[in-house]
Amino acid sequence: MSTVRIEFPDTAFPPQEIPLRGCLPLHLSVQNSPLLFGCRSGLCGTCLIEVEAAADAVEPPADDEREALEIYAPGNPRARLACQLVPLGALRVRKIESV
């Protein structure tokens, strides 16, 4: 099984290896990451993050996620909802507060 590395810069959390295309809420928790997951359906904004990655390291956001990002992080091209993110390569993520 292929995995991808998720790093959490500027935190004490070590990088995590999760399955390629893995669902972040299934593999990340408060014990192994700084990310919090609320509704897990892309509506609440609890898991709002900034992603540093190569352009092909994540699938582009679906229309529903794009609409939510316009509300929670307008004008931030690196903002994503972790619960909706599909990792295809190594990522560096930072939790951000919604507007």
Automatic annotation (TrEMBL):
Signal peptide region: none
Database matches in SUPFAM superfamilies: 2Fe-2S ferredoxin-like (SSF54292)
Pfam families in alphabetical order: Fer2
Highest rank taxon of the organism: Bacteria
CDD domains: fer2
Cross-referenced Gene3D superfamilies: 3.10.20.30
Residues of the 2Fe-2S ferredoxin-type domain: 32-87
Name under which the protein is recorded: (2Fe-2S)-binding protein
Provenance organism: Tahibacter harae
